[in-house]
Amino acid sequence: MGTSDEQPGVTTARPQLPLRLPLGGGEGRGEVVGIRYEKMPDFPIANEMPILSLAARPAVQQLRSSKIREVANAGMGKKDVVAFWFGEPDEVTPDFIRQAGIEALNRGETFYTENLGIPELRDAIGNYLSRLHRLGGTGLITSDNIAVTSSGMSALMLTTQSLVGPGDRVVIVTPVWPNLVEIPKILGAETVTFPLSFTPKGWTLDLERLLATLEPGTRAVYINSPNNPTGWTIDREAQRAILEHCRMHGIWILGDDAYQRFFYGNGAAPSFLDIADARDRVVSANTFSKSWLMTGWRLGWIMAPKELIANLGTLLEYNTSCAPCFVQRAGIVAIEQGEPVVARTLTRLRKARDFLSARLREIPGIEATLPPGAMYAFFKVHGVSDSLAFCKKLVSDAGLGLAPGIAFGPEGEGFVRWCFAASEERLAQGIERLRKMVVHR
Ligand SMILES: Cc1ncc(COP(=O)(O)O)c(C=O)c1O
Protein backbone atom coordinates (compact mmCIF):
# COMPACT_ATOMS: atom_id res chain seq x y z
CA MET A 1 0.00 0.00 0.00
CA GLY A 2 1.04 3.50 -0.71
CA THR A 3 1.28 6.28 1.83
CA SER A 4 -1.85 8.23 2.66
CA ASP A 5 -1.28 11.12 0.27
CA GLU A 6 -0.97 8.83 -2.75
CA GLN A 7 -3.99 8.14 -4.91
CA PRO A 8 -4.57 4.58 -6.09
CA GLY A 9 -3.30 3.99 -9.61
CA VAL A 10 -1.30 7.17 -9.73
CA THR A 11 2.47 7.05 -9.51
CA THR A 12 3.73 10.15 -7.94
CA ALA A 13 7.32 11.17 -7.93
CA ARG A 14 8.90 14.18 -6.43
CA PRO A 15 11.88 15.06 -8.52
CA GLN A 16 14.96 16.03 -6.59
CA LEU A 17 16.07 18.27 -9.38
CA PRO A 18 14.14 21.22 -10.71
CA LEU A 19 12.81 19.95 -14.01
CA ARG A 20 12.48 22.17 -17.03
CA LEU A 21 8.99 21.12 -17.98
CA PRO A 22 6.65 22.77 -20.45
CA LEU A 23 4.37 24.00 -17.72
CA GLY A 24 1.35 26.13 -18.48
CA GLY A 25 1.26 29.53 -16.83
CA GLY A 26 4.39 28.90 -14.86
CA GLU A 27 2.46 27.81 -11.75
CA GLY A 28 4.77 24.96 -11.06
CA ARG A 29 2.29 22.22 -11.96
CA GLY A 30 2.45 19.71 -14.74
CA GLU A 31 1.90 16.19 -15.97
CA VAL A 32 4.56 14.25 -17.86
CA VAL A 33 3.78 10.92 -19.56
CA GLY A 34 1.79 9.30 -16.80
CA ILE A 35 3.73 10.87 -13.95
CA ARG A 36 1.83 13.58 -12.19
CA TYR A 37 3.68 16.09 -10.11
CA GLU A 38 1.21 17.17 -7.50
CA LYS A 39 3.18 20.17 -6.49
CA MET A 40 6.27 21.16 -8.30
CA PRO A 41 8.86 23.14 -6.39
CA ASP A 42 9.40 26.65 -7.60
CA PHE A 43 12.35 26.86 -9.98
CA PRO A 44 15.29 28.26 -8.06
CA ILE A 45 17.38 30.83 -9.82
CA ALA A 46 20.64 29.56 -11.28
CA ASN A 47 22.96 30.44 -8.41
CA GLU A 48 20.71 28.62 -5.95
CA MET A 49 20.83 25.36 -7.88
CA PRO A 50 21.97 22.46 -5.70
CA ILE A 51 25.54 21.48 -6.47
CA LEU A 52 25.44 17.86 -7.52
CA SER A 53 28.39 15.77 -8.56
CA LEU A 54 28.56 15.00 -12.24
CA ALA A 55 31.00 12.15 -11.69
CA ALA A 56 30.37 8.41 -11.36
CA ARG A 57 29.34 6.76 -8.09
CA PRO A 58 32.09 6.51 -5.44
CA ALA A 59 33.02 2.87 -6.13
CA VAL A 60 33.83 3.80 -9.73
CA GLN A 61 35.61 7.03 -8.87
CA GLN A 62 37.80 5.14 -6.43
CA LEU A 63 39.05 2.64 -9.03
CA ARG A 64 42.80 2.77 -9.46
CA SER A 65 43.91 4.12 -12.78
CA SER A 66 46.48 1.99 -14.58
CA LYS A 67 50.03 2.76 -13.55
CA ILE A 68 51.24 0.85 -16.60
CA ARG A 69 49.36 3.36 -18.74
CA GLU A 70 50.88 6.17 -16.71
CA VAL A 71 54.37 5.00 -17.67
CA ALA A 72 53.34 4.40 -21.28
CA ASN A 73 51.86 7.91 -21.46
CA ALA A 74 55.18 9.29 -20.25
CA GLY A 75 56.76 7.66 -23.30
CA MET A 76 54.18 8.94 -25.79
CA GLY A 77 55.73 10.91 -28.59
CA LYS A 78 59.19 9.68 -27.69
CA LYS A 79 60.60 7.99 -30.80
CA ASP A 80 63.28 5.70 -29.46
CA VAL A 81 61.52 3.60 -26.83
CA VAL A 82 61.90 -0.17 -26.71
CA ALA A 83 58.69 -1.12 -24.93
CA PHE A 84 57.82 -4.27 -23.01
CA TRP A 85 55.20 -2.71 -20.72
CA PHE A 86 52.00 -4.28 -22.04
CA GLY A 87 51.09 -7.94 -21.69
CA GLU A 88 50.75 -8.72 -25.33
CA PRO A 89 52.53 -11.10 -27.71
CA ASP A 90 54.35 -9.20 -30.46
CA GLU A 91 53.05 -11.40 -33.30
CA VAL A 92 49.90 -10.87 -35.35
CA THR A 93 47.16 -13.50 -35.24
CA PRO A 94 48.11 -16.41 -37.53
CA ASP A 95 46.76 -16.16 -41.05
CA PHE A 96 44.46 -19.21 -40.95
CA ILE A 97 42.64 -17.75 -37.94
CA ARG A 98 42.33 -14.32 -39.58
CA GLN A 99 41.01 -15.95 -42.75
CA ALA A 100 38.27 -17.72 -40.78
CA GLY A 101 37.07 -14.32 -39.54
CA ILE A 102 37.29 -12.79 -43.02
CA GLU A 103 35.40 -15.69 -44.60
CA ALA A 104 32.64 -15.41 -42.01
CA LEU A 105 32.30 -11.72 -42.82
CA ASN A 106 32.26 -12.49 -46.54
CA ARG A 107 29.48 -15.03 -45.94
CA GLY A 108 27.51 -12.23 -44.32
CA GLU A 109 27.79 -13.46 -40.74
CA THR A 110 27.18 -10.02 -39.33
CA PHE A 111 24.19 -10.76 -37.09
CA TYR A 112 23.55 -11.35 -33.40
CA THR A 113 24.15 -14.87 -32.12
CA GLU A 114 22.88 -16.84 -29.12
CA ASN A 115 23.72 -15.07 -25.84
CA LEU A 116 25.97 -17.93 -24.71
CA GLY A 117 27.74 -18.14 -28.07
CA ILE A 118 27.23 -20.14 -31.24
CA PRO A 119 26.76 -23.85 -30.45
CA GLU A 120 29.75 -24.90 -32.60
CA LEU A 121 32.11 -22.71 -30.59
CA ARG A 122 30.69 -23.83 -27.25
CA ASP A 123 31.13 -27.44 -28.40
CA ALA A 124 34.67 -26.74 -29.58
CA ILE A 125 35.60 -25.16 -26.22
CA GLY A 126 34.00 -28.07 -24.32
CA ASN A 127 35.99 -30.57 -26.40
CA TYR A 128 39.19 -28.58 -25.97
CA LEU A 129 38.79 -28.43 -22.19
CA SER A 130 37.89 -32.11 -22.06
CA ARG A 131 41.13 -32.90 -23.87
CA LEU A 132 43.11 -30.86 -21.35
CA HIS A 133 41.18 -31.71 -18.19
CA ARG A 134 38.68 -34.13 -16.82
CA LEU A 135 36.30 -32.74 -14.23
CA GLY A 136 36.80 -34.91 -11.16
CA GLY A 137 39.00 -37.18 -13.27
CA THR A 138 36.02 -38.57 -15.19
CA GLY A 139 33.35 -36.09 -16.18
CA LEU A 140 33.53 -34.52 -19.61
CA ILE A 141 33.10 -30.79 -19.96
CA THR A 142 30.20 -30.14 -22.31
CA SER A 143 28.89 -27.07 -24.07
CA ASP A 144 26.37 -26.70 -21.21
CA ASN A 145 29.33 -25.69 -19.06
CA ILE A 146 30.48 -22.97 -21.45
CA ALA A 147 29.56 -19.31 -21.99
CA VAL A 148 31.38 -17.44 -24.75
CA THR A 149 32.33 -13.88 -23.81
CA SER A 150 33.80 -10.84 -25.54
CA SER A 151 37.26 -11.23 -23.93
CA GLY A 152 38.77 -12.76 -20.85
CA MET A 153 38.21 -9.45 -19.11
CA SER A 154 34.50 -9.74 -19.84
CA ALA A 155 34.52 -13.35 -18.59
CA LEU A 156 35.92 -12.15 -15.26
CA MET A 157 33.46 -9.27 -15.01
CA LEU A 158 30.44 -11.44 -15.88
CA THR A 159 31.47 -14.14 -13.42
CA THR A 160 31.85 -11.52 -10.72
CA GLN A 161 28.53 -9.91 -11.59
CA SER A 162 26.87 -13.29 -11.30
CA LEU A 163 28.44 -14.24 -7.97
CA VAL A 164 29.40 -11.16 -6.00
CA GLY A 165 27.20 -8.47 -4.50
CA PRO A 166 27.76 -5.39 -2.33
CA GLY A 167 29.61 -6.21 0.89
CA ASP A 168 30.60 -9.73 -0.19
CA ARG A 169 34.09 -10.71 0.84
CA VAL A 170 36.39 -11.63 -2.04
CA VAL A 171 39.94 -12.82 -1.43
CA ILE A 172 42.44 -12.28 -4.25
CA VAL A 173 45.92 -13.76 -4.44
CA THR A 174 48.40 -10.98 -5.33
CA PRO A 175 50.53 -9.51 -6.87
CA VAL A 176 48.18 -9.77 -9.79
CA TRP A 177 46.97 -8.07 -12.94
CA PRO A 178 45.15 -5.06 -11.43
CA ASN A 179 41.82 -5.73 -13.15
CA LEU A 180 41.23 -8.77 -10.99
CA VAL A 181 41.29 -6.67 -7.84
CA GLU A 182 39.28 -3.76 -9.24
CA ILE A 183 36.42 -5.81 -10.78
CA PRO A 184 34.82 -6.88 -7.45
CA LYS A 185 35.21 -3.33 -6.14
CA ILE A 186 33.02 -2.02 -8.98
CA LEU A 187 30.27 -4.23 -7.59
CA GLY A 188 30.76 -2.97 -4.04
CA ALA A 189 32.52 -6.07 -2.72
CA GLU A 190 34.97 -6.04 0.13
CA THR A 191 38.27 -7.13 -1.38
CA VAL A 192 41.00 -8.77 0.66
CA THR A 193 44.37 -9.26 -1.01
CA PHE A 194 46.53 -12.21 -0.06
CA PRO A 195 50.19 -11.69 -0.99
CA LEU A 196 52.52 -14.35 -2.34
CA SER A 197 56.04 -14.25 -0.91
CA PHE A 198 59.19 -13.54 -2.91
CA THR A 199 61.96 -16.00 -2.04
CA PRO A 200 65.30 -16.86 -3.69
CA LYS A 201 63.43 -19.77 -5.32
CA GLY A 202 60.72 -17.52 -6.73
CA TRP A 203 57.23 -16.54 -5.67
CA THR A 204 55.57 -18.94 -3.24
CA LEU A 205 52.19 -19.37 -1.60
CA ASP A 206 51.83 -19.74 2.14
CA LEU A 207 48.98 -22.25 1.93
CA GLU A 208 48.13 -22.39 5.63
CA ARG A 209 47.85 -18.62 5.82
CA LEU A 210 45.68 -18.50 2.70
CA LEU A 211 43.32 -21.12 4.15
CA ALA A 212 43.09 -19.09 7.36
CA THR A 213 42.24 -16.01 5.28
CA LEU A 214 39.48 -17.94 3.52
CA GLU A 215 37.31 -17.70 6.60
CA PRO A 216 33.66 -18.83 6.67
CA GLY A 217 31.44 -16.25 5.04
CA THR A 218 33.95 -15.50 2.29
CA ARG A 219 32.10 -15.45 -1.00
CA ALA A 220 34.91 -16.16 -3.44
CA VAL A 221 38.64 -16.56 -3.92
CA TYR A 222 40.29 -15.35 -7.12
CA ILE A 223 43.45 -17.12 -8.22
CA ASN A 224 45.36 -16.28 -11.38
CA SER A 225 47.79 -19.09 -12.20
CA PRO A 226 50.11 -19.01 -14.09
CA ASN A 227 50.21 -15.57 -12.67
CA ASN A 228 50.58 -12.17 -14.24
CA PRO A 229 53.02 -10.64 -13.25
CA THR A 230 55.05 -13.14 -11.21
CA GLY A 231 54.71 -16.34 -13.29
CA TRP A 232 53.89 -18.17 -10.03
CA THR A 233 51.97 -21.35 -10.82
CA ILE A 234 49.93 -23.12 -8.19
CA ASP A 235 50.72 -26.78 -7.57
CA ARG A 236 48.28 -29.65 -7.34
CA GLU A 237 48.69 -30.12 -3.61
CA ALA A 238 47.72 -26.51 -2.89
CA GLN A 239 44.79 -26.78 -5.29
CA ARG A 240 43.45 -29.84 -3.52
CA ALA A 241 43.71 -28.18 -0.10
CA ILE A 242 42.02 -25.01 -1.34
CA LEU A 243 39.25 -26.96 -3.07
CA GLU A 244 38.58 -29.04 0.07
CA HIS A 245 38.51 -25.93 2.24
CA CYS A 246 36.24 -24.02 -0.15
CA ARG A 247 33.88 -27.01 -0.42
CA MET A 248 33.52 -27.02 3.34
CA HIS A 249 32.71 -23.32 3.52
CA GLY A 250 30.79 -22.89 0.26
CA ILE A 251 33.37 -20.50 -1.16
CA TRP A 252 33.47 -20.02 -4.93
CA ILE A 253 36.83 -20.46 -6.64
CA LEU A 254 37.41 -18.30 -9.69
CA GLY A 255 40.46 -19.42 -11.64
CA ASP A 256 41.79 -16.84 -14.08
CA ASP A 257 43.36 -19.27 -16.53
CA ALA A 258 44.46 -16.78 -19.20
CA TYR A 259 48.02 -18.16 -19.21
CA GLN A 260 47.16 -21.80 -18.72
CA ARG A 261 48.99 -22.87 -21.88
CA PHE A 262 52.08 -20.83 -21.06
CA PHE A 263 53.54 -23.21 -18.52
CA TYR A 264 57.16 -24.32 -18.66
CA GLY A 265 56.58 -27.59 -16.81
CA ASN A 266 54.85 -30.56 -18.44
CA GLY A 267 51.55 -30.09 -20.29
CA ALA A 268 49.03 -27.43 -19.32
CA ALA A 269 49.41 -25.74 -15.94
CA PRO A 270 47.66 -27.50 -13.04
CA SER A 271 44.01 -26.47 -13.13
CA PHE A 272 41.15 -26.70 -10.67
CA LEU A 273 39.28 -28.27 -13.60
CA ASP A 274 41.42 -31.42 -13.20
CA ILE A 275 40.25 -32.04 -9.66
CA ALA A 276 36.83 -30.39 -9.30
CA ASP A 277 33.55 -32.27 -9.56
CA ALA A 278 30.69 -31.09 -11.72
CA ARG A 279 28.91 -29.80 -8.61
CA ASP A 280 31.82 -27.84 -7.19
CA ARG A 281 31.69 -24.07 -6.93
CA VAL A 282 34.53 -23.72 -9.42
CA VAL A 283 34.65 -21.33 -12.36
CA SER A 284 37.41 -20.94 -14.91
CA ALA A 285 37.69 -17.72 -16.92
CA ASN A 286 39.77 -17.93 -20.07
CA THR A 287 40.67 -16.04 -23.22
CA PHE A 288 41.77 -16.51 -26.81
CA SER A 289 44.06 -13.47 -26.42
CA LYS A 290 47.28 -15.12 -25.37
CA SER A 291 47.29 -18.79 -26.45
CA TRP A 292 46.20 -17.98 -30.01
CA LEU A 293 47.67 -14.46 -30.29
CA MET A 294 44.25 -12.81 -30.54
CA THR A 295 44.32 -9.88 -28.08
CA GLY A 296 42.49 -7.48 -30.40
CA TRP A 297 39.67 -9.88 -31.25
CA ARG A 298 38.21 -9.74 -27.74
CA LEU A 299 37.09 -13.32 -27.31
CA GLY A 300 37.01 -15.44 -24.17
CA TRP A 301 34.91 -17.93 -22.27
CA ILE A 302 33.63 -19.01 -18.89
CA MET A 303 33.56 -22.65 -17.83
CA ALA A 304 31.20 -23.11 -14.88
CA PRO A 305 28.51 -25.39 -13.42
CA LYS A 306 25.50 -25.67 -15.73
CA GLU A 307 23.18 -23.76 -13.42
CA LEU A 308 25.50 -20.77 -13.37
CA ILE A 309 25.92 -20.91 -17.15
CA ALA A 310 22.14 -20.77 -17.55
CA ASN A 311 22.08 -17.62 -15.40
CA LEU A 312 24.97 -16.19 -17.38
CA GLY A 313 22.92 -16.64 -20.55
CA THR A 314 20.48 -14.08 -19.19
CA LEU A 315 23.17 -11.82 -17.76
CA LEU A 316 25.03 -11.77 -21.07
CA GLU A 317 21.93 -10.30 -22.71
CA TYR A 318 22.40 -7.21 -20.55
CA ASN A 319 26.13 -6.92 -21.20
CA THR A 320 27.30 -7.42 -24.77
CA SER A 321 24.30 -9.69 -25.65
CA CYS A 322 26.77 -11.89 -27.53
CA ALA A 323 30.29 -11.90 -28.93
CA PRO A 324 30.55 -10.86 -32.62
CA CYS A 325 29.68 -13.77 -34.89
CA PHE A 326 32.71 -13.57 -37.20
CA VAL A 327 35.02 -13.39 -34.18
CA GLN A 328 33.42 -16.55 -32.80
CA ARG A 329 33.99 -18.27 -36.18
CA ALA A 330 37.67 -17.37 -35.98
CA GLY A 331 37.66 -18.74 -32.42
CA ILE A 332 36.43 -22.15 -33.62
CA VAL A 333 39.30 -22.44 -36.08
CA ALA A 334 41.80 -21.25 -33.45
CA ILE A 335 40.75 -23.76 -30.84
CA GLU A 336 40.31 -26.69 -33.25
CA GLN A 337 43.37 -26.17 -35.43
CA GLY A 338 45.59 -23.94 -33.32
CA GLU A 339 47.61 -26.45 -31.27
CA PRO A 340 50.72 -25.89 -33.45
CA VAL A 341 50.38 -22.15 -32.73
CA VAL A 342 50.27 -22.80 -28.99
CA ALA A 343 53.24 -25.17 -29.20
CA ARG A 344 55.32 -22.77 -31.32
CA THR A 345 54.50 -19.82 -29.04
CA LEU A 346 55.41 -21.81 -25.94
CA THR A 347 58.78 -22.81 -27.43
CA ARG A 348 59.48 -19.21 -28.36
CA LEU A 349 58.43 -17.93 -24.94
CA ARG A 350 60.52 -20.53 -23.12
CA LYS A 351 63.62 -19.44 -25.07
CA ALA A 352 62.85 -15.78 -24.40
CA ARG A 353 62.28 -16.47 -20.69
CA ASP A 354 65.59 -18.32 -20.34
CA PHE A 355 67.47 -15.66 -22.28
CA LEU A 356 66.00 -12.71 -20.39
CA SER A 357 66.25 -14.25 -16.92
CA ALA A 358 69.92 -15.14 -17.48
CA ARG A 359 70.76 -11.65 -18.78
CA LEU A 360 68.86 -9.96 -15.93
CA ARG A 361 70.78 -11.97 -13.35
CA GLU A 362 74.04 -10.68 -14.80
CA ILE A 363 73.12 -7.10 -13.90
CA PRO A 364 74.32 -6.15 -10.41
CA GLY A 365 71.47 -5.11 -8.12
CA ILE A 366 68.84 -7.15 -9.92
CA GLU A 367 67.25 -10.19 -8.36
CA ALA A 368 65.45 -12.31 -10.94
CA THR A 369 64.09 -15.83 -10.62
CA LEU A 370 62.94 -18.13 -13.40
CA PRO A 371 59.15 -17.79 -13.78
CA PRO A 372 57.46 -21.22 -14.12
CA GLY A 373 54.62 -19.81 -16.24
CA ALA A 374 53.07 -16.85 -18.11
CA MET A 375 55.19 -14.45 -20.17
CA TYR A 376 56.70 -12.00 -17.71
CA ALA A 377 59.87 -11.50 -15.75
CA PHE A 378 59.01 -9.81 -12.46
CA PHE A 379 62.29 -8.86 -10.87
CA LYS A 380 63.51 -6.86 -7.91
CA VAL A 381 65.73 -3.86 -8.42
CA HIS A 382 67.65 -3.22 -5.23
CA GLY A 383 67.47 0.34 -4.01
CA VAL A 384 64.22 1.07 -5.85
CA SER A 385 61.42 2.00 -3.47
CA ASP A 386 59.25 3.85 -6.01
CA SER A 387 58.85 1.59 -9.03
CA LEU A 388 56.57 4.07 -10.81
CA ALA A 389 59.18 6.84 -10.67
CA PHE A 390 61.88 4.34 -11.66
CA CYS A 391 59.93 3.16 -14.72
CA LYS A 392 59.20 6.73 -15.79
CA LYS A 393 62.91 7.49 -15.54
CA LEU A 394 63.68 4.35 -17.55
CA VAL A 395 61.48 5.70 -20.33
CA SER A 396 62.75 9.24 -20.31
CA ASP A 397 66.47 8.58 -19.72
CA ALA A 398 67.04 5.12 -21.22
CA GLY A 399 64.23 4.69 -23.75
CA LEU A 400 63.09 1.46 -22.11
CA GLY A 401 59.42 0.75 -21.41
CA LEU A 402 58.70 -1.56 -18.47
CA ALA A 403 55.75 -1.85 -16.09
CA PRO A 404 56.13 -0.73 -12.45
CA GLY A 405 55.61 -3.44 -9.84
CA ILE A 406 53.35 -1.19 -7.79
CA ALA A 407 50.75 -1.51 -10.57
CA PHE A 408 50.17 -5.08 -9.36
CA GLY A 409 49.64 -4.29 -5.69
CA PRO A 410 51.72 -2.96 -2.78
CA GLU A 411 53.62 -6.25 -2.55
CA GLY A 412 54.92 -5.52 -6.06
CA GLU A 413 56.67 -2.32 -4.98
CA GLY A 414 60.40 -2.43 -5.69
CA PHE A 415 59.78 -4.83 -8.60
CA VAL A 416 59.50 -4.28 -12.34
CA ARG A 417 57.60 -6.35 -14.92
CA TRP A 418 59.01 -7.16 -18.33
CA CYS A 419 56.85 -8.93 -20.93
CA PHE A 420 59.21 -11.27 -22.78
CA ALA A 421 56.89 -12.14 -25.68
CA ALA A 422 59.38 -10.44 -28.01
CA SER A 423 62.33 -11.26 -30.25
CA GLU A 424 65.70 -12.02 -28.70
CA GLU A 425 67.13 -9.05 -30.56
CA ARG A 426 64.72 -6.63 -28.94
CA LEU A 427 65.16 -8.24 -25.54
CA ALA A 428 68.94 -7.81 -25.87
CA GLN A 429 68.48 -4.18 -26.84
CA GLY A 430 66.32 -3.67 -23.75
CA ILE A 431 68.84 -5.41 -21.48
CA GLU A 432 71.60 -3.07 -22.60
CA ARG A 433 69.46 -0.06 -21.81
CA LEU A 434 68.52 -1.44 -18.39
CA ARG A 435 72.11 -2.33 -17.57
CA LYS A 436 73.32 1.21 -18.31
CA MET A 437 70.59 2.72 -16.21
CA VAL A 438 70.98 0.40 -13.20
CA VAL A 439 74.76 0.39 -13.16
CA HIS A 440 75.10 4.18 -13.53
CA ARG A 441 72.42 5.10 -11.00
C1 LIG B 1 45.80 -12.41 -15.81
C2 LIG B 1 44.97 -11.98 -16.94
N1 LIG B 1 43.70 -12.40 -17.01
C3 LIG B 1 42.90 -12.03 -18.01
C4 LIG B 1 43.35 -11.21 -19.02
C5 LIG B 1 42.34 -10.82 -20.04
O1 LIG B 1 42.68 -10.89 -21.33
P1 LIG B 1 41.70 -10.40 -22.46
O2 LIG B 1 40.74 -9.43 -21.87
O3 LIG B 1 42.57 -9.81 -23.51
O4 LIG B 1 40.99 -11.61 -22.95
C6 LIG B 1 44.66 -10.72 -18.98
C7 LIG B 1 45.17 -9.80 -20.01
O5 LIG B 1 46.24 -9.26 -19.93
C8 LIG B 1 45.49 -11.13 -17.93
O6 LIG B 1 46.77 -10.72 -17.84
SSE blueprint:
Elements: E1 30-32, E2 35-37, H1 58-61, H2 67-75, E3 82-83, H3 95-106, H4 119-132, E4 146-149, H5 152-163, E5 169-174, H6 178-186, E6 190-195, E7 197-199, E8 202-204, H7 207-213, E9 218-224, H8 236-249, E10 252-256, E11 282-287, E12 300-303, H9 306-317, H10 325-337, H11 339-361, E13 366-367, E14 376-381, H12 387-398, E15 400-401, E16 403-404, E17 415-419, H13 424-439
Parallel strand pairs: 3-15, 5-6, 5-9, 9-10, 10-11
Antiparallel strand pairs: 1-2, 4-12, 7-8, 11-12, 13-14, 14-17, 16-17
Pyridoxal-5'-phosphate binds at residues 87, 151-153, 177, 224, 228, 256, 258, 287, 289, 295, 300.
> How would the global form be characterised?
globular
How are helices and strands ordered from N to C? EEHHEHHEHEHEEEHEHEEEHHHEEHEEEH
In the CATH hierarchy, what is the superfamily of the largest domain?
A: Type I PLP-dependent aspartate aminotransferase-like (Major domain)
Content of β-strand: 15-25%
For the record, give the distance between the C-alpha atoms at the N and C termini, rounded to a whole number: 73 Å
Name the ligand types.
Answer: pyridoxal-5'-phosphate
